[in-house]
Amino acid sequence: MRKHLFYIISLVVQLAVAQNQTIELQANWKFRQTETKQFYPAVVPGTVHTDLLKNKLIKDPFFADNEKSVQWVENENWEYVGTFNCDKATLQNKHIELNFEGLDTYAKVYLNEQQILDCNNMFRTWNVEVKKQLKPGVNTLRIVFESAVKKGKSLAAQLPYTLPGDEKVFTRKAQYQYGWDWGPRLVTCGIYKRINLICWNDLKLESVHHIIKTLNDSIAEIKFITEIQSDKDSVYTIGINSFHSLKTLPKLHPTQNTSIRLHKGLNIDTFDYVIKNPRLWYTNGLGGADMYWVNFNLINKKETTLLKHLNIGLRKLELVKEKDFFGESFYFKLNGQPLFIKGANYIPQDNFVSRVGDDHYNKLIQMTRESHMNMLRVWGGGIYEDDKFYHLCDENGILVWQDFMFACAMYPGDSAFVENVKQEVIQQVQRLQNHPSIALWCGNNESDEGWHNWGWQKQYHYSKQDSSKIWNDYKKVFHEVIPNTINILFPPLEGVEGGNYHSSSPSIGWGRKESLLQGDSHYWGVWWGMEPFDIYEKKVGRFMSEYGFQGMPDLNTLKAVCDSNELHLNSTSVKAHQKHPTGYQTIQTYLERDYIVPTDFRKYNYASQLLQRDGMKIAIEAHRRAKPYCMGTLYWQLNDCWPVTSWSAIDYNNKPKALYYETKKVYNNIIISVHPERNQYDIFIVSDKLKEEKAILEINLKNMKREILFHKRDSIIVKANSSQIYFTIFQNEIEKYDQNSIYLSCQLKDRSGAVIANTNYCFVKPKDLQLLNPEIKTKYSKENQSLLISSKVFVKDLYLYSDNPLIEFDDNFIDLEANTIKEIKLKSGFKYYKDIKHISLYDINNKPR
Ligand code: BMA
User: Fold this and answer.
1) Looking at 432-591, which runs of residues are DSSP E strands?
2) Residue 4's pLDDT band (cuts 50, 70, 90)
3) Positions of E strands within 578-636
4) Residue located nearest, by CA, to atom 10 of ligand 1
5) Residue 565 and which of 6, 426, 518, 589 are 20 to 30 A apart at CA?
6) CB crowding 628-661: b at 16 or more within 10 Å, else e
7) 43: helix, coil or strand?
8) Ligand 1 atom at shortest distance from the alpha carbon of 528
9) pTM for this model (two decimals)
10) CA of residue 583 to ligand 1 center, whole Å
11) Which pLDDT belongs to residue 839?
12) Which atom of ligand 1 approaches the CA of 380 most closely?
């Protein structure tokens, strides 16, 4: 049946070809540095750096410290020339447009030597009518990119003061390209997205967006708003139909036809559409992310032409900001129910985003789903992501907190800049608002916090007038232009509290106590403030949108960018792949607090990942336990844009770090969390489920040989959407034993005995644990493509690894209980199982070298 549906859709698409056609422009591209003679072949979409690399004109900027040697590229201007054929049939169309999905950034575009465009914003798309300039046969497109760094500097020089963020803030371009504390400085340029040729005759549907007017179990009333370009005054019939995307049996909802009168030019029309008994869209972990496929058809007697196809999800999402006893709440309600947010901050997947393909998006969003996240925050120093990203988030029930692309700086407020931002906002909001995943629009990352807390006024010697001008410019962009533009496009709905715009993240800087009482918080006392991990237990705000700690990437990822003799902490290459000014020292200081610090590089890498995991586990559990005071946790950061030691859970090659495996556990719908209080340990169970659950709680105090020193077993009911203490064990019970060689094992089981949640809690720091020699036994099961691992004693943090990067595990950095068998599946690379090796905490505590 599914196949059948695709036939219907593709038939409609074929008919559509007669009317409207969008074809990716296929041209032969070459490029050169302006004012030089030699052209080289180029790849579009692409960037100047990737083209220079392909032509062996620069070294790989990701390898060793090559980044330094390519800095000259940003100061040059670059020219791209593409030739393409245009046949007579194409030229017969009444309208032919060139559509540039993305040009980075200052670009003058010439078609057959006539200038057709002057672009200044990487985040906008550009459409030009080119029927007049096109000719039959060979046509030439020439695009000249001016150095964004030079242009930014010249704009900066026109102001009487320096803006924090320097030249980058004048250019609407991904800010991380200028270097970040996890990314290299690679200020690139180029045709980084597709160029399309759009041909049409009578009418063209420019955009469709929708507003859900009513939504309940029996009815969804939707208002579609269309923008249609018409070539003449005429009357048409538009038919809307939809399919529910049930995996097995798509259900067709009947077509609803409306007759409309179009005038020559741009027409804005609205269409009401009703779906009976709708299936609502829910986030990952709470039910299906049900979607509807909606078609807009042009109907005349002879044929039906598809004008537009879109996927929508039916959900009601509210951001609830309500004054309360403590301050002000900040949480989301999904379809009427408070929703605890679990996720991470997302940055671009590469410094050269044209290299990020469908497989990268698929893999990363799959990993996001598998780790039980229900939100990603697309951080403001990167890019508005590709459509593919949002489609995957829709389908997987991952909400998106979407920052506008401004970060950690102050921006100009002149009319040209503000108008440019306004056009960017219109385009991006229109492009993305249809996605059910879009939860929130946020003005910027940490600009408000920076202005109020980072001492810029002193650092840049601002006069009173400078200060008020800069702050007024800020307010113009983030308090007026952006929210007003969103409101015009999508007026807030009746019955939905709050808006879906938040001017800056965090609401208040982490140094101020109010930051934990209202709004969203970035807590950086750990890492930037060097505070111990335990402080996370106290510093819990209403919605924790950033906090984090660094860990090294998978060793194979580092090996791929370092010569083998460089694999040590003092090497140029390893240092080059750390962008925080005191990054390695900070890791070292925290390591010394909790671990015996290994000198062997692999063990150091392993320990750094454990350390990062420990910190995040403490933070996440504290946030979840504090529900409903705290209603969200997004750690910094999900991923990387190059191979680097950073705060990420998943490295540049999509290899999971210890933190990623922990996320799979600690973001589960139900978790057990042990919380030390003065003379006792409280056992919390946190549930994000919408229904209560009967379960059995088992608490066992064990020694390293799994002998049980204390035992408790209780039938309990885990309350829906709750955090509660279910048991307390007192210090005097623990003190009977040597605390270095015991651990508390807590398990929650369902009635059949299957484990729903479990955790092991140690009473001393990892460096003080007295572990026994594990003598690990491993069996390989060909049938299950898995490893069966066992040991006679408790094994802490067993890490399986291989020099072969093809091998991937479904779990790792695990605790192995004595005399039990743990099965670890190989997600890929099983045939190389013989290459698998392991280390565990024992190897660090007992053989530190
Ligand atoms: C956060 C982010 C980034 C930065 C990270 C780590 O505040 O917004 O600017 O990379 O801290 O320092």
Assistant:
1) 438-442, 501-502, 521-522, 544-546
2) very low
3) 632-635
4) 181
5) 589
6) ebbbbbbbbbbbbbbbbbbbbbbbbebbbbbbbb
7) coil
8) 12
9) 0.96
10) 13
11) 97
12) 8
